[in-house]
Design goal:
Layout: E1 5-8, H1 18-34, E2 37-42, H2 52-64, E3 70-75, H3 80-92, E4 96-99, H4 103-113, H5 138-146, E5 152-155, H6 157-164, E6 168-170, E7 180-182, E8 192-195, H7 202-212, E9 217-221, H8 227-238, E10 244-248, H9 268-273, H10 278-284, H11 289-296, H12 302-311
Helix pairs in contact: 7-8
Amino acid sequence: MTIPVFRFAPSPNGYLHLGHALSALINFEMARASGGRLLLRIEDIDATRCRSEYEEAIYEDLTWLGITWEEPVLRQSAQFDFYRAALARLEAAGLIYPTFESRGEIARLIAEQGRPENWPRDPDGAMLYPGHGRSLSLAERERRKAAGAPYALRLDLSAALARAGPLTWSETGGADAGEVIAAQPQMWGDVVLARKEVPTSYHLAVVVDDARQSVTHVVRGRDLFWSTSIHRLLHSLLDLPVPLYQHHRLVLDASGQKLSKSTRATALRSLRADGASAADIRAMVGLTYDALRAVRAPFASAEARTLDRNDN
């Protein structure tokens, strides 16, 4: 029998807020209810924004919430060789190519082709790459690399889709519980998978890490729902196992926007300093008794029922 493996994977580029607390607690409770394992992964590939003090704060905040996880903790900054190996496989299959335009140059190329406001955008709101780099010859690509030009490695989406064919994933909870979702990688265009200075992106690192850590259940916020489309494509191209997915509700601010470090959402450590308890945090994110039962429902067992009684 396969033991369920869950993971919570924050980036140490700011302090954890209530949205992180909800995701971490859901993963923790699902791991407990299923008799599974909870892993903690530190997604620190962005060296310019990630800081050691934020990483230490993650451990402190999760411990304060009563969450435990397996050791050792995987840090993405120590996994670059695995990401390079995945890129090498994609390159050997003719599925990635380098592009050398800056963001400003890409915006100019798009403006030259029509009205930028009408240009298609990916689920994160970025304008899709117009594809100019695909026309560069191999010799020109190598010349620019040898000259030290900065570049991004992009997925050749057309070639990737032709190789993979139609893809789906299974949702195990939330609004789409029990549904098989048709992946739509085309929403992302020729997505960046790595850059000259960093041999990975979020999309590549997360599928490589989930496979290496034998993660069976990916439980994360609804804002990452359509990221699963590009992740499913990468699973197929790299022959990686496909986990089950659940995209839970988000914690919203007073204006109805999701909480974000970039908008300086109130940190857990600030709430703690103001006198909040771990139980208060559970209440703030809506993990009531009934909500916990719903979280544990897919793993209904004698252990889960015991946990329910203990929380009543």
